[in-house]
Amino acid sequence: MNESLRTANLLGALSLAITDRLLVELKEHSRQNDTSASALNVISFAEGCTNGQLCAALQLSHSATVRLVDKLSEAGFVEVRQGLDKRSVAIFLTDAGRDRTRSVVQARNHALGDLVELLAPQQRAQLDGIAEILLEKMTQARADAMHICRLCDEQACPQDRCPVHQKYCSMPG
Questions:
Q1: Which pLDDT band, with edges at 50, 70 and 90, does 84 fall under?
Q2: Which domains, ranges and CATH numbers included, belong to the chain?
C-alpha cells in the first residue's frame, strides 16, 4: 500500500468531517450559510471593502457577490455606501452584522475547539506546525490569503503569527 495515498485519504476524510461539522454549526444560525458567514467575516477584517474585493476573497462571480451583499443588506447585517468613485461601493457591517459575525466565529471556535481538545498538548503543537506549513504553501497568490482565512478568528491567530498573512506580506504588490 502506498502510504502517501493513505495519508492523503486520511486528510481528505478529516477535512470533509471538519467541514461537515462547521456547516452544522453555521446552519444553526437562521438564514445563514457558509458564504454569507464568510462574507461577514471578510467585511469585518476589511471594513469599507468593495464588491470586487469581496468577490475575490469569496471567489464568487461579481453578480453572485452583488446578490449576496443585497441579501446581507436586506437582513440588516451590512450597509452599502458610495465608494471612492461613482462605480464602486464600500461595504460596512452594522451592529447586527458585528453581532452575527461574533456569533459565527464563536460557533466555529466551539466546533473546532472540541476537536482540538481531544489532542494532547504535544499533538496540538505538532498539528500547529503541520497546519502552518500547509497553509503557507497553499498561499500561492495575494488573492489566496483572504480566501483561505475567510472564516478565521483574527483574535485567535493575529496577523503577526498567521502563516497566510506572513506569506501575503512577503509577496510582491
A1: confident
A2: 1-118 (1.10.10.10), 119-173 (no CATH)
